[in-house]
Amino acid sequence: PLVSMKDMLIQAKENSYAVGQFNLNNLEFTQAILQAAEEEKSPVILGVSEGAARYMSGFKTVVKMVEGLMEDLNITVPVAIHLDHGSSYDKCKEAIDAGFTSVMIDASHGPFEENIEITSKVVEYAHSKGVSVEAELGTVGGQEDDVVADGVIYADPKECQELVERTGIDTLAPALGSVHGPYKGEPNLGFKEMEEIGAATGVPLVLHGGTGIPTKDIQKAISYGTAKINVNTENQIASAKKVREVLAADSEVYDPRKYMGPAREAIKATVIGKMREFGSSNQA
Ligand code: G3H
Ligand code: ZN
């Protein structure tokens, strides 16, 4: 069923695993992620950035595609459709009105008080509709669609506590050195701060930039209260690699099913690997 992230993440935190957020880019990504979740008996969060929603023609198309697939594929595990890095109250409201079950309001780029103000407004509307809310503090490095960072700023534990208390968000993404896109070298995550923020806020934490984080760091993050890990680039890389392989092996191929089908299998295999690594398999 389509649900918010609220219970999913509370359960994950209580039982020391993390639910994966896997980003949608098109039909094949959506099929692959839903099939992986059903096969693994894992809850799953479908992340949709504003850019990806635009690419897929809009929030309504995304919701109807997901609903259709859940019916046709007989999906029984809990699924959330989540706006990733929502840029404004209006965008969050638009996604909620289209049927999203969860939103992220990313007001981390402006002043702290402004972040609180916008996030509170989103929480008020979202919660009145049973929709969960994620907020962010600090800056995730790298670039994802419209979200560009020119430096990594670590979230401040005191501000995190205040944001959670004053807004009533369900989950918090404190930026602690993670990066969107591939890492240059090993990631250097602020685990000390993560532990402090997890304990001070009490809410399940989100780790953005899940691509390229070694298993030992994933496990550490989960042990410090991370209950949601976002992955996008790794699936994109797996899919592009497979398309290149198929097209390089046969210069006569033109039917998209002949290269997108194998790409879909590659995405599914990647997602299954992440679900096992995050410990969410057999938790639905
Ligand atoms: O919000 C989405 C993510 O944080 C994905 O990060 O593309 O580095 O896996 P990634
Ligand atoms: Zn992100």
TrEMBL record:
<keyword id="KW-0479">Metal-binding</keyword>
<dbReference type="InterPro" id="IPR013785">
    <property type="entry name" value="Aldolase_TIM"/>
</dbReference>
<dbReference type="GO" id="GO:0004332">
    <property type="term" value="F:fructose-bisphosphate aldolase activity"/>
</dbReference>
<keyword id="KW-0862">Zinc</keyword>
<protein>
    <submittedName>
        <fullName>Class IIb fructose-bisphosphate aldolase FdaB</fullName>
        <ecNumber>4.1.2.13</ecNumber>
    </submittedName>
</protein>
<dbReference type="Pfam" id="PF01116">
    <property type="entry name" value="F_bP_aldolase"/>
</dbReference>
<dbReference type="InterPro" id="IPR050246">
    <property type="entry name" value="Class_II_FBP_aldolase"/>
</dbReference>
<dbReference type="InterPro" id="IPR000771">
    <property type="entry name" value="FBA_II"/>
</dbReference>
<dbReference type="InterPro" id="IPR011289">
    <property type="entry name" value="Fruc_bis_ald_class-2"/>
</dbReference>
<keyword id="KW-0456">Lyase</keyword>
